[in-house]
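Risk register update: the risk of archive-format incompatibility is retired. Evidence:
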Amino acid sequence: MAEDRNLKDELLMDPFKEADDTDDNLILQPEKAAEELPKQSEMLTTFKDQFSESDLKTIHDIKDKIEPLNNDALITYGANAQQAMSKFSHHMLNEVQSKDVGPIGDTLEDLMKKLKEIDPEELTNEKSNIFKRMFGRMKRSVNEMISKHQSIASQVDRISIQLEHAKEVLIKDVNMLDGLYNQNKEYFDAINIYIAAAELKKEELETETLPRLKAEADSSSNQMDVQDVNDMMQYINRLEKRVHDLKLSRQITLQSAPQIRMIQNINQTLAEKIQSSILTSIPLWKNQMAIALTLLRQESASKAQREVTNTTNDLLTKNSEM
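Archived output:
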C-alpha cells in the first residue's frame, strides 16, 4: 500500500504539471451568470463526510494554488493525473488483449473427453461379455485393455501438466489485476481531490471575489473594473468546464473498476476449475480405473482357476471310471 500511496501523492504534488497531451475541450465560451451554489459551510460539511483529514488539508492546499485569471495554468490543472490514467487504460487494454483464456478452456474440454474415453463401468462384466461391449467384437486379452488404459492415462497426465502451468499463469494474472485495481483506485482518489479543490475554489470566487469586483465596478466609473468582472466570470466558466472534464476522467476510473474485477473473476474461476480437475477429477478417475482393472484381473484369474478346477475334476472322474 506504500507504493499506492506514493502514486497518489505524486499525482497530487503539482496540480499544474504539464501533461504529454493537453486537453482540446477547453474552448472559450460566452460569459454567463454564475449559478447559485450551496453555501461554503454545506460544501465543506459534504467534503468532511467524503474525505479524510489528510485529504481535506490537501484539497485546501491545492485550492490555494489555483491562481484566478491564470488561464494557462488552468489548462494543465489535474492533467498529469488524467495523462497517467490514460496510459494506465492503455496498459490494461494491452494486458487483456495479450491474455487469451480460450485455449485453457479447450484444454479442460480435452481432459474431460479423455476421462470419458474409458468408462470404468465398461470394465465390469454384468450382462454381456466385457470385450464385446468395449470393442464391439470378440474378446481381447486383458493386456490389451491395460495397454489402452495406460495410453489414455499418459495423455491425461500430459494434459494435467499443461493445466497446472496454465493455473500458475492465471493466478499470477489475478495478483497482477489486484495491483491494477489498487492503482486505478489511486487515480480515482487523486482526480476526486482535484475536483473538490476546483469546486471549492469556484465557490470562493463566486461568493467572495466576484461580488467584491462587482461592487467595485458599480461604485467606479472605470470601464476596466467592468472588464475585470467579465474576465472573472469567464475564468469561473472555464474553471467549471475544467471540473466537468475531470469528472469525465473520474467516470472512466469508476467504469474501469468493475471491468478489472470481471476479468479477475474469469481468471479466478478458470484457476479453480483447473485445480478441481487436477486434485479431484483426475485422481477419482484413476482410482475408479484401478478398481475396475483389479476386478478385471480378478475375473480373469477366477476364470483360470475355474478352468484348473474343472480340468482336475475331469481327470479325477476319468481316473475313477478307469
